[in-house]
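User: My instructor asked us to take a sequence, write out its structure as tokens, and then describe one feature of it. I'm not sure where to start. Here is the sequence I was given:
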Amino acid sequence: MVNNCANPQCGKPLHYLREGRIFVFEARNQSGEGDSAMRGHHLEHYWLCGACSLKFRVEQAPIGGIRLVPRYQVERQTVSEPAALAS
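Assistant: Let's start with the prediction itself. The structure tokens for your sequence are:
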């Protein structure tokens, strides 16, 4: 279970789900044992507190684990894509 904010600079304890945002990712097989290691379905949950969820989002890192991505980069890409298509 998630206990604290996923932002290591924050670490605010989780008391109520009504504040912040939950991110859910399917766990990746890192053991190198092939399909036999992925028989079960495993989800990993991460929570950002209200203040951190306004600034960041959680993304699954390519190598494993998670990383925080600033929201302004995501919003800027989303806003600029339609403009590029319209030109």
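For the description part of your assignment, you could build on this observation: The two ends are 47 Å apart (CA to CA). Try explaining in your own words what that tells you about the chain.
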